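Per your request, structure below.
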């Protein structure tokens, strides 16, 4: 059984082979009633093992492991915003009323709290939250239509 797991699980780390063997033995124990007594045992055992090997590959997925040291310099640098993001935001905000646009700009783009934006616009905090929600919903609808 180990030879089969080693041969079929070549793409897996060798330390997983013992885990797969344990899973195979457990599956054989749990599913022993599915073996037909008159049929040969080896094909049934190999089928169980093949399925467990495939399960191990699926669990592992297609992950690529890269050492963090190779990309540390890139990660440390500040990411530049998308070059057209500000232009797109201004264009979208130009499609809604001025008060809603100012509220979205203050809260979502500049990072102010809803209460701070409400004070600057002579609104209550509740009214500002409702207006912000409606403005975001309107922007979402406009973006959907533009797709």
């Amino acid at each position: 059984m180990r030879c089969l797991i080693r041969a079929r699980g070549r793409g897996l780390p060798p330390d997983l082979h013992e885990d797969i063997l344990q899973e195979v033995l457990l599956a054989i124990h749990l599913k022993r009633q599915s073996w037909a007594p008159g049929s040969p045992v080896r094909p049934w055992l190999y089928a169980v093992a093949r399925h467990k090997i495939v399960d191990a590959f699926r669990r592992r997925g297609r992950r690529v492991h890269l050492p963090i040291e190779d990309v540390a310099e890139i990660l440390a640098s500040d990411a530049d915003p998308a070059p057209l993001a500000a232009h797109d935001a201004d264009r979208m905000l130009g499609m809604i009323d001025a008060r809603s646009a100012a509220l979205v700009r203050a809260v979502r783009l500049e990072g102010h709290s809803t209460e701070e934006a409400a004070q600057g616009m002579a609104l209550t905090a509740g009214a500002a939250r409702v207006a912000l929600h409606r403005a975001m919903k309107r922007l979402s609808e406009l973006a959907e239509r533009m797709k």
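The chain has two domains: 2-60, 85-146.

Regards,
D.
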